[in-house]
From TrEMBL:
Full protein name: Uncharacterized protein
Top-level taxonomic group: Eukaryota
Length: 151
């Protein structure tokens, strides 16, 4: 989490009720933070495990396959994420296990703007790897996140 701390900004001295609630729930504050209601773990699971249209893959498994395929042929190893293998059902189950593990090990939770029109919910573990959900226009799983690189 050390390299994630560079993104934190101080809490307001005169907090709004939304900011106070956000802080009390243990979420972090960055320059782009929006003080929205945090999605429930059940909602995160539902959107992650929803079947991707036209396949038997879950939305989360489809995103994991895309994450591994970004640089040409599928990577064999990764420092954190487990490569999707087997049937679509097996890939979906493996991806769900990675979601469960991430939810257990989350040390960073933030709701923030990516741009003028997109607000996301982001979770990360102590190594900096994470997952992200769109919150606008509705909650939907967006993808897997790599750890920030120190520059």
């Amino acid at each position: 989490m050390n390299d994630l701390r560079k993104f934190l900004i101080p809490w307001s001295e005169q907090m709004s009720s939304q900011e106070a609630l956000y802080r009390a729930k243990g979420l972090v504050k960055t320059i782009a933070t929006e003080f929205w209601e945090e999605p429930s773990a059940a909602d995160l699971h539902e959107t992650f495990c929803r079947t991707h249209k036209g396949t038997n893959l879950s939305v989360g498994a489809k995103a994991l396959c895309k994450h591994f395929a970004r640089k040409g042929p599928i990577m064999e190893t990764h420092p954190f994420w487990l490569a999707p293998r087997g049937s679509e059902v097996q890939k979906s189950e493996d991806a769900r296990r990675q979601l469960d593990d991430m939810l257990r090990r989350t040390v960073w939770r933030n709701i923030h703007r990516l741009n003028k029109h997109v607000v996301v919910y982001e979770i990360r573990n102590e190594l900096g790897y994470g997952m992200r959900w769109n919150m606008t226009p509705r909650l939907e799983f967006r993808g897997f996140l790599e750890a920030h690189q120190l520059s």
